[in-house]
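TICKET #2291
ISSUE: user wants both folds in one file
ATTACHMENT 1:
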Amino acid sequence: MDGNKVKNPNAGPRGRLRERFKKSGLDGFHDYEAVELLLTYAIPRRDVKPLAKRLIEKFGGLRGLFDASHEELSKVRGVGSHTAVLLRLIKEASGEYLKERMMKKDVIRSPKDVADYLNLTLSGERVEKFMALYLNSKNEILGVETLHEGFLDRTFVYPRKAIENAFKHNARSIIFVHNHPSGDPTPSEVDRKLTRELESAASALDIIVHDHIIVGKNTQFSAREGGWLKGKGRG
């Protein structure tokens, strides 16, 4: 009897997308198809392909989409609060995943994990964030602290706070990081002076500053590679 038939959960566009993902992940997916699959979990019983394409076009791709704020997402026709929260959750959860993975490894011998984490968490930020990664004697990350958010002036980043946190984590070394929301990682004179002050404060207490990394949109600047740091470096 037709009335007794069980509906095939893999039938229709949603089911087919899910089956493709189960078999091979996102391999072969268009950007809009990945978003379409995500949207099926926030928007039941509606064709979400047009919205997925609209989001990709609006934000220029997956990176722009996941970097968008809740308010920006909510302004797109068809995006409700649940959808905006889901899309923001994807990036935040991914950042926590990379952070945990990074903290399980020797960061100095695994710079790619640090770069992946920083690119995800800082590259799309609309405000400047100044962070410190605290490491033990094996160069394993003990903790990640945000020291300042907002317009960066070296008077707002107190070396004392950075060093106090190093003692809190019982750290032997630090990597400082901040982003340039403009997307251009070219350092300023303020960046250079701040780096000197932080290294000076740390070295006075026998704490090593491995690097001060400035994150741009697609590239990074390393104070260590730029020759700014005088003390013992990586390795």
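ATTACHMENT 2:
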Amino acid sequence: MPAILLSRREVETAVKTLQPLPRAVTRLLELTDSETATIEQMERVINAEPVLCGKILQVANSAYYGLARQVNSIRSALILLGAHTVRGIALSVAAVAALRTGRAACETEYPLWRHAFLCAGYAQGIAQASRWGVRTAEDAYIAGLLHDIGSLFLLTRFPAQYRPLLEQAEREPEQFLERELHTFGCDHADVGAMIADHWRLPERIVQAIASHHAPFLPDDESQRLVAAVMLADVWGQESFSPPPQELATQVRLSEETALQIRQRVEEHLETISQILFS
């Protein structure tokens, strides 16, 4: 029996039922986008959420960041890693928790999360190597992490409709986006942008998620974020559409640099995954 087709409105309604980000995370997003915020303000916000605080310290002390000394407090994490990096870690923790809602992840979810963690690291590394600035590099981490969150949402909320699409994508990836549109009235990039907007993430990140399968790079402030995520998606070997030609002129990395970024992220992938899923 064929799966029942859904409308875009039904998907939008389902997104609105997704739990909001914790107040500490949304406040941290506000503070890191403010020019007048202080480390003391950020420290108080995070310390008010013990579980979030513990996860941030675990990630900060992981081999992924390779700090020379132990991070024993949120203040130390903010000083040593920077506020934007801590913001990215906090959002990673919150995003995983929001979609899992206390349940164990199903087997089909793991490859999607693995790809998300890979692309987060890749996109961040691409932005850093391109010298686009600290904020852009950390925004790239978030956009990379969340670029396929629409797929994770559709899989967990509409498994009967979405799981067959994922299985078909392994055989015919070039038709995946078209099948999503036919089944849901929107594709996973659209749904990811809905979720990012529902979570009140900055517009540049919403646009980066929405545009990561576009045939061209946007001509606005999200251009570099989209470029980083598109290339990360290609490196992750799960891009369902050919990248735009101008991507090669926007991101110019040597083969050696690209290899170093990929090796570093892949080396620590399991560590980060275990911390965020524990």
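RESOLUTION: both attachments delivered.
EXTRA DETAIL ON ATTACHMENT 2: The longest helix spans residues 109-129.
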